[in-house]
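Appendix B, example 12.
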Amino acid sequence: MDLSSAVTATASTLRRRPADLIPFYLLGTAVPVIARVGLFTALAGVYLHFELTGRLATARESLAGLDLTPPDTQDPEALRAWSESLAPALEPLTSPTAIALVLAGTAATATIAILTYAAVSAGQMSAVVARLRSERGLTAGIAGVRDRWLTFLGVYVAELLCWLAVFLLGGIAISAAFVVNPFLGAAAALLVLLVGLVALLLVRTVFAFAPAAVVVDDAGAIAAVEGAGEFVRSNPADAAAYLVVAVGVLVAISSAASALAFLGGGAVVALVSAVVAAPALDLLKTLLYGDHRGSVDPLHSPEASLRAQLSGGVRRGWREMTAFVRRTPGLHALAVGVGVGFGALGWLAVDPFVGAITTSIEGRLVGHIPPVAALNFFGNNWSVAIATSLSGVALAVPALSSVAFNGFALGATAALEENLVALAAFVVPHGILEIPALFVSGALGIHLGSVSWRTLRGHRSRDEFADALEGAFWVLIGVGVLVAVAAFVEGFVSPYYWRPFL
């Protein structure tokens, strides 16, 4: 299969039943939300440690008599004096137990992130190859998470070891040459740089196709690397073409992110790269490798136009979202309870700092540019909603922690606001849409957690779990509509309408 045909087949597969593939790539955006549960748990332990040992009360009493506002100057001496004045008050919060808990939480977060990334990648590639064989992608992806996560972890570890080996061997060669003669060392450094770059390029090319080999050949890590290496040797033009396309996509995304960062579109670009560029590249390399093995059957383009698909998808998403809200009042009540409860906790937690530390909605609105802000609000809030919802597959805990975190942050911000009336006036117009969107995403995460738990216990089939993931995709489209309207109001209405009255 030539590159042009592979690209056409990739686009056709993406357009045919995107809800049977994209949810696993949405799940990829939820990996940080799932992983940070480890750190959140450690921080909760730190808080309990401080509270039970009286350290927190001691710190509060000490801070109550201090000026916590940094000096309004760039004078290093003034800043140093201010920092030194706070040190005695903060000393009770630097216990060895707290440091150990934070370090353990950080390590747990990193470990969870690595394992979750391997599992999600296994699901993504398993869903990709299933779609290319006209099978249900989500069901195959769910099976792939369970059956192939360790293989994918092995592939990633093997690539890391190869990179380390190239750097280590290069370093040894350069060091040995410098011991003999400085001029020989300089020449060796140049040679190692050139050879090393070629070696790293070959490593990356082989390991780019190794995940495809795992799912196409149903192979283990070592066999997959061998299969990918054989493909690169047999089809150097296809491998090079894919590498050029992948680099081009990466450069385009980086350029777009840099350009749109000034227009508030950085979050939108990141989301598009995660749910469009990533599956497209996975489809492309799997098509090339699968065609080499003769084990894929690319799909044809759907008859409906892209515009008709988009408009129909938005309408369906809105219907699915409203139907989900009506079906699950209990889950929404739980999400609201967690959000409001942690909002109150955030309000109470910062009470010792009220007056000493302030936030200002009017200050944050200085330099506000409506279209830039609206695009930024939309990208950030929809990304948060998606990550919150899909993180729920990890038995609902990460979704609940996300709702709790956002509630705590909003409560703390409100408590420290110097003009609470202005903040309320700003929040209400878009908040009546944005806050419910957060609660819907939280309820959706709890729902997915319930389904995943029942699937693990054997009370639900993989097809039923796949149905839940596909339904979640459409609900999130509806949430996106809600977030888009809220972002428009927040960008163009909320900052202005109240100013003549307050």
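The first helix runs from residue 3 to 15. The chain is about 80% helix and 0% strand.
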